[in-house]
Amino acid sequence: MILFLAARPVTAPPVRPAPRRSGRRLLAPYRRIFAHPGTRAFTAANLLARLPMGMLSVSAVLMIAGSRGSYALAGAVTATGLAATALAGPWTARLIDRHGQARAAVPATALAVLGSLSLLLCVHYGAPDWTLFASYAATATTPNTGGLARARWAHLLRDDPAARHTANSFEQAADELCFLLGPVLATLLCTTLFPEAGTAMAASLLLTGMLLFAAQRGTEPPVVARSTARARSPLRLPGLPPLLLTFGCTGAIFGSMEVVTLAYADAHGIRSAAGALLALQAAGSAAAGLLYGLLRPTGRGTRRFRGCVGAMAALMLLPPLAATAGGPAALAVALTAAGMATAPAMVTGMGLVQSRTPAGRLNEGMTLAVTALLAGIAAGSATGGWAVEQLSGPGLGYAVPAAAAALALATSLRHRA
User: Fold this and answer.
1) Helices and strands: H and E segment counts in the chain
2) Domains of the chain listed by start with CATH number
3) Does position 352 have pLDDT exceeding 80, yes or no?
4) Which keywords does the record carry (predicted)?
5) Whole-prediction pTM value?
6) Contact by Cβ (8 Å): 146, 371
7) Which of 362, 338, 131, 332 lies closest to 237, judged by CA?
8) What dihedral angle (degrees, nearest 10) is formed by the CA atoms of 182, 188, 190, 191?
9) How many Cα atoms within 13 Å fall on the side-chain side of residue 245?
């Protein structure tokens, strides 16, 4: 028996094929962009600095209203800061383009942090109301942290349009995540610790994150010669003003959606669930942004942008239908679906801004897009509030974001975006 077994040919056991790593292949575009040296470090630092963007206004409102007992004063102070940001933002971005991210963004951030700390002290020690306006206006020098990260990606991936598309998609999802978590963290700090806790934490995160971000000099875009950078203002570039108008209409969607959703939840006795409804919209947008980044862009950017805006306009019809014909549960589903349309439009639009802005003006061009968004948010908030009070039911207020989306589509179709 032993001789028989020894005489048998030795064959290797059958090798089973390794399981296909579909998940790793699916995430390959993101793994590829983060394989570049230094990208993970500057992304982590930038996310730390970007999180306060969703905390500052909410923290200021809770802090001022809690100490002064006036939401009107809190709203006026934050509105002043928004207007100041719209004016100072492009100026700050121009300095960053001219002198570099580390040299210009850090002092601008330090000034903004001093403004937040001044606001905190003025509220805590009962300073006159005018000091609140002056202090919060000083925070307008806060750099466009998302734009700083996008500028680094644009420099590192300047020869790879598909990778830039993936990076822009990731940055859009990061924006949504920060504006989703920021208000929650601010509310938690201000209500469980003390009213000034949210502002103090936001200022600390902003300064720490920006210092860490600026320290990553290996991925910082080089400064373009001043004669080239000053050649032409981004506002005079062909195709950019219509893009900014479309960004403004998109901002009106965000601003009106927030106000209308708060009013709808209050009217249905679920005021505490208003934040969850808005979070579903942001979560849908973040998920869509990440999935959109996995796709390889095809065709002209203008045509893709119009298609994304058209999809956004179509899906924005769902919330008014759900609010009037359904209930809160149907509205939650509709808001999630509607949110999934905004990220692809924003990603494609920001890609067009990058492609049509000179390298020496890139931060300024992207900050102008953010400024247009902020202006649209302010207009949308005012219009949404008027609609809630004037129309017969809060559900009809969702016609405002739907109309803003339709206006965005009309703007993108009429002009060469």
Assistant:
1) 19, 0
2) 39-223 (1.20.1250.20), 237-417 (1.20.1250.20)
3) yes
4) Membrane, Transmembrane, Transmembrane helix
5) 0.73
6) no
7) 362
8) 150
9) 16
